[in-house]
Amino acid sequence: MKKLxxxxxxxxxxxxxxxxxxxxPVEIIDIHTDDxxxxxxxxxxxxxxxxxxxxxxxxxAPLKEYRSGRWPDYGTENLIYPTMGERNFREPALRVTHAxxxxxxxxxxxxxxxxxxxxxxxxxxxxxxxxxxxxxxxELRFTAYARENVISTHAVIRNREKGPxxxxxFYSSALPLEAESYLLTHLYGAWTREAQVDHxxxxxxxxxxxxxxxxxxxxxxxxxxxxxLGSRTFSEEYGEVVAGALAWSGNFRLNxxxxxxxxxxxxxxxxxxxxxxxxxxGESFTTPExxxxxxxxxxxxxxxxxxxxxxNYGIWHGDTYAPTLLNSWEGAYFDFDARxxxxxxxxxxxxxxxxxxLDDGWFGNKYPRNDSRAGLGDWEVNRxxxxxxxxxxxxxxxxxxxxxxxxxxxxxxxPNSELAHKHxxxxxxxxxxxxxxxxxxxxxDLSNPAVQDFVFGVFDRTMQLSDKIDYIKWDANxxxxxxxxxWLPADEQSHFWxxxxxxxxxxxxxxxxxxxxxxxxxxxxxGGRVEYGALRYFNEVWTSDNTExxxxxxxxxxxxxxxxxxxxxxxxxxVPNHQSGNITPIKFRFDMAxxxxxxxxxxxxxMTDQEKDFARQAIANYKEYRDLVMHGxxxxxxxxYDESGCYGLMYVAKDRRRAVLFTYCLRYQxxxxxxxxxxxxxxxxxxxxxxxxxxxxxxxWFDGKTFRGxxxxxxxxNPQLSRLYDSGVxxxxxR
Length: 735
Known about the structure:
- By secondary structure, this protein is of the alpha+beta class.
- 19% of the residues lie in helices and 30% in strands.
- α7 links the parallel β26 (471-474) and β27 (519-522).
- The longest helix has 23 residues, at 609-631.
- It is globular.
- The termini are far apart.
C-alpha cells in the first residue's frame, strides 16, 4: 500500500467541466527532447488534451489559441488519457467501476511539474489529474531523453474512495496522431520463426496487436511498432515515422483506432483481457512504461533513436555485452559428461572464442535430467553426469582463458520432480482442473511470494556452485494457460496476469541487487522475451531457437527494427541445420551471425579442419569490428523481403571514422543481375578504404581501394553476389 502523493485534492466538490473552452486560461505543458515535442493543453478543472506529438516546436505559445474545430460532444477530443464517461467514443485508456458502482470517470487537470533528473540528459514531467466526482487520482509521468529523442510514459492510478474500485482497462498511454495515412509495421511469428515483419495500411476501425501468453509473450507478436505517417510506402531513410515499444513482460495490447475524424488513437499497455484489478482504498496501481520516438529519417532514424536509448537507459548495463561463446546445447543436448564438456572448451579456446556455456541437463538426481520429461525444479548437480561438480568445469574454462556460463529454467517444474511432489500448491492451476503440460512441464506461480523466494534461490544457489560463473542463460519454455493461483484470493484470480509479471520483476530486482555484474540472457524457447520490460534486468536475449542462417536473415532484420544488435544472440550451428535441415556454407553462417552477438551452437568435433581454420579467422575478424556492431549506428540497406533477393546492413561508428558492411544473397540472381549497395551514414567528405574480411584473397574490384563517403552514398558498391548464400563482410576505415 502506497501513500498518496496529493491526498488533499477535493475534486468531489468540483463541478464536472467539459473539454477546453475558449474562455479558460490555457497552459501549454511542453515535454521535449532535442528534436521531438509532446505538447499538452491544460487548464484548471478541465480535461488535458494533446496538441502535438512530432518534430520539435521550440515556441509552442501560439498553440494556446489552437482549436480543433470539432464539436466537443462528438467524443473525438484528443485527450491525453481518455476515460469511459469523458464524452469519449474511442476505446478508453482507463475504465473503472468506482466503489459506489459508478461506471464513469472524468479526469480534470490539477497541476504539473517538471524536473531534471540526476542525469542532465533526462527530464521528468508529472501531470496530475483527478476525477471531478470520485476520489480517484491519475498521475501521468513523462520522461524525456534529450539526445536519444525518446519520450517514455506511464500512469499511476490512486484510489482515495471509501471502498475498493475495479480497474477494467488501465493502459499505459494514449497518443492521438493526425496524418493523411498510417502505415503500420509490426512483428509476428511463431517458434523458430520469430520477428517476421508485416506492413499494414490502417483503415477506419480498430486493429489490435496483443498477447495472452504471459510468459513467452513475444513469440507470436511483439509489443513494438512503427507508424509511417502520410505515406503508404515503408522507407528506411525518408519520411515521418513514429515508433513505440512497451516495456512489459506479460500480456500486452497495442490498439490502433482510426475514428470518423481520421485521427489515429494509439492505446498501449498491459492487456485488459481477463485482467480486472481490484484496487483497495489507499492503494495505487502503476502501469508499465511505454516508449515513443519520432523521426523524419524514416524507419532507420526511429530504430537508431530506440537503439541509442536502449544502450544508454533500457538495457541492464547496456554499455556491456556478452563475449563470443560456444553453447553446449546443439553440440551435446542432454548427453554429456565432464570429458565431453572439457573437450568442447578446448575446441572453443582453440578457435578464439571467449566463453563456454553449459546448457540444459546438468541437474537432478532422484529424477535425473536426461531429457525434458524430468528433473526440472530439482537444482542439484547431477552426480552421475558430473561427479566433479560445476566448479571443475568452470575452473577448467577459466584456465583455458574462457569465461563460463550455465543454463537455468527456474519458473518451471516437471511433474516428475521432487519440487512438484513437495509443493503442488506452487503450480499454476485451478482447483478441480488438470494443469495442462507444455514440454512436459508446469508453470510455477510467481504471484506467490514463496515461489519468488524459490526462484531467487535457484539463481542464488546456482551462482554459489562456483565463483567462476560469469553468465546465466535464463530459459522459459512454456506459456500460461488454464491459470489459477492457490495464493491469490478467489475474488482476485484475475490479478494473476499482472502479479505474475510483477513477481518476475521482484525476483530480478533482488538478483540484480546481489549480482549486478553477472551477464544474463533472457531466453524463452528462443525469442519469447524480446522486449524492454525484461531487458531492464537482462543483458541480451536469445533471438530464436532457429540457428539456420537463411532464416536468421529475416529474424534478425525484424528484431533490429526495435532492438540493438548488442542484445541479439546469433549463433553459428552445424549443417544440416537441426531446425530446418538446410545446408549452408560456413562463410554464410558466420557472415550472418557476425551481424549480432556472435556465438557458436554445435559440437566442434563434427567440424572439419578447414571449417575450424575459417572459424578461427572469422572470430578474429569479428573482434576487430565488434565495437561497431555493439555500439554503432545501424543502417539497413534494403530488406530480406525485397524482390531482388539481396540485402545489406551496416554499422557506423558515432564519429563516422569506421564502418562494417554486411551483404547477403538470399536467392539465385542469375548472371545479368548484380546488386548495388548505396552506403549510408558515412561522412561525405571523408575517404574510406574498403577491405573485405573472411576471404583468402580479394574478390571484387573495389577491395583495398579508397573512396569518398559521398561517392559511396550516391554511387555505392556492387559486389557480385549472384548465387544463393553468397555473402560479404567489408570493413571501412577512414584515411
